[in-house]
Amino acid sequence: MKRGIDVSMFVDVDILKYKPDFVIIRGGEGVAFKDSKAAAYAKVCEDNHIPYGVYWVLDFSSGTSAQHAAECLRTVRNLPGRVRMGIWADCETPASMDNVAIAEFCQKIQDAGFYAGIYTGINYLRSGKIKVDAFDKWAAYYGEDSGDLSDFDSWEIDIIQDHASLWQYASGTGKEPDLDICFLNDLSVYDVSNTGSSSQPDPPEASDPQVSGVDPAILEELDDIMDRLKRIREYLEGEPKQ
Predict the structure, then answer these.
(1) Cα dihedral 86, 89, 68, 46 in deg (nearest 10)
(2) Pairing between strand 166-170 and 87-90?
(3) Are 23 and 52 in contact (CB under 8 A)?
């Protein structure tokens, strides 16, 4: 398990104070608005070897999914260094609650060679308001601000872990960032932007001779991701778990 933060122009954060394993930076919103602090935050991460990702706030009242993706990718490609923690579609408002458009946005991000995922509240996932099975989730659900799953009831823990590989467990204000946990130990899973691939690679099978030299721990992480995504689909589709 890794701990990280997410930041935007709305908070004035000293990233290094938190010693994060990763950072996710607000890139912008809609089809025209770029976050004024994104480049500065990205430079701090890159200079200090902290893997960073980007989230983009969707607002389909301002444009199409293709326009959102194009603006997001233009912004990301002008940031210092390389995105290593994926690009996440931020879906929190009524203007972003369009599952077809969300999937189209994520697909375009993935086709451009980045890990794509969806940030939203856990209740939207539970209710099916956000139902896009093909992509990972970064779920927001707040407890005692400790990031300790023991603070939650068992049903809450199941929902968080079944839906998402990332969990935002505390909301910051002013000079305090939002706080996040990644349930994976190997953050390189999110770093597909250096592969030259136009899509996220499928986790290889252990029997595949091409991966015979891969660390077994990495393969175990990939198997865990596939199992989690399977359980996400079963939960959202109402299928019983085996």
Answers:
(1) -30
(2) unpaired
(3) yes
Q: What is the mean pLDDT of residues 57-75?
A: 96
Is 207 a member of any domain?
Answer: no
Phi and psi of 11, rounded to 5°? Answer: -130, 145
Q: What phi and psi values does residue 88 have, to the nearest 5 degrees? A: -120, 130
β partners of residue 136: 117
What CATH number should be reported for the domain holding residue 146?
3.20.20.80
Q: Under a CB-based contact definition with an 8 Å cutoff, are residues 33 and 64 in contact?
A: no
Residue 211 within any structural domain of the chain: no
pLDDT digits (tens, 9 = 90+) for 21-47: 999 999 999 998 999 999 999 999 999
Euclidean distance between the first and the last CA atom of the chain, given in angstroms as a whole number: 25
Counting every residue written for the chain, the total comes to: 242
Q: Which residue has the tokens 């935002």?
A: 168
**pLDDT tens track for 159-196:** 677 778 999 988 887 788 999 999 899 999 999 865 43
Structure tokens at 179: 């706080």
User: Among 149, 212, 213, 150, which residue's Cα sits nearest to residue 181?
Assistant: 149
Run of H or E residues at 121? strand 116-121
165: nearest Cα among 143, 194, 135: 135
Contacts of residue 134, defined as CB under 8 A and 6 or more positions apart, other chains included, come to 103, 106, 107
Q: 105, 101, 137: which is closest to 119 by C-alpha?
A: 137
pLDDT of residue 199: 40
Q: Which domain holds residue 183?
A: 2-201
Residue pair 195/187 in contact by the 8 Å Cβ criterion: no
